[in-house]
Amino acid sequence: MIYLGKIGVILIAITVVCTGCWDRAEINDIALMMASSLDLEEDGRYYGLSQIAVPSRQIDNSPQATKSYYVESGIGINVQEIVQHEQPKLSRKLFISQRRVLFIGEKLARKGINDIIDHFSRNSLSRLRTYVLIVKGGEGKDAIMTDYPMEFVPSEAVREIEKQSGGMTATFRDLFNAASGEGIEPVLSAIELTPSPQKPKGSEPVKKTFNLTGTAIFKDLKLLGYLDNHDTQLLHWVTGKLKQGIIIVQLPNKKHNVSVTLIESKGVIAPTVEGSKVKFAIHLKGKGTIDESNTHLDFSDPKNLHLVEKELEQLIRTETEKLIENVQKKYASDIFGFGDTLHKKNKKAWKKLKPQWNESFAEADISVDVDFVVKRAGMTGPSLQLREQEITK
């Protein structure tokens, strides 16, 4: 009996181990999709491209080597039909779980992305960390066909640029959460294709490169407009997503400026409701270091640091209020998630305001308060090139 019991345990263990690999795919049998793009055709159908890594070419960097990626296309009335058009042209099964980036052309984004995101949210193989970008003033197919010399696969360059952006990234997860949430509208990263500074040879066309240019504003999943990088930094500060940033502030005489690198940031939103009127008080906190100065100030003196802090607070307050007012009047799209905050903190008030939230957001009274601390001024007090008599104590 003991012998039979041991045999049974062994058989069960083998069964468990084997069942975990029944649907595995060998690396030699799959086509690793690294990026894809979607555009809107004149006839209303979607045109898509898939950027597929070629593993055998990843290690061959000789001048004679061909590209380390391959691009295939498809067209259809939905995303699944695009995939069906691509697969018969591939010798391997298209594998989407490694997709890093999705480019969406501006024309499609303005028409609306409601229909296409269902495919990505429903497919269990979709990578939730896939970055989603709008190609400002262009088409997704142009972005996916753009080469980038520093990376084997161009989409990897876009991913790294996004990671260095300090909180501007938007993924499938962010898009799905905002699209299904209450009191918040989606925002996606915007990218442009700008001429490369390297001159083409002979009759070669002008090469273009990637340029992360800010944020795409949506309402009801339709593209309305864009924020530049500076306003995007403020947006992420308000929403508590800012990881890093640089602020350049003019001192009172307007002749000199100081560059401050943000090392800590926090944004807190506090709603209050009076009848049908809603107010939001935003409190921004920040810490930073002075990394460049063209002033004559000696920053080893605390009063000069306080001077910079005061000017920073005034600048951040003014520009944040200006940004919010512009979004309220021009777009009436709650990209800051004020409604979401109200929903979490005052469900009773939110229930009344929810049906007309766009109008309530556009008319909301919003104030901004800022606390900023300059932790240090680099490695020196005054600039090293100044003589003693030139330094302002």
TrEMBL record:
Protein name: Ger(X)C family spore germination protein
Record keywords: Germination, Lipoprotein, Membrane, Palmitate, Signal
Family of this protein: Belongs to the GerABKC lipoprotein family.
Location(s), subcellular: Membrane
Residue span(s) of domain Spore germination GerAC-like C-terminal: 213-378
A Pfam family that the UniProt record links to this protein: Spore_GerAC
PANTHER family xrefs: SPORE GERMINATION PROTEIN B3
Membrane topology: Lipid-anchor
Keyword Glycosyltransferase: no
Residue ranges constituting the Spore germination protein N-terminal domain according to the UniProt record: 23-192
Native organism: Paenibacillus baimaensis
Gene3D superfamilies, sorted: Nutrient germinant receptor protein C, domain 3
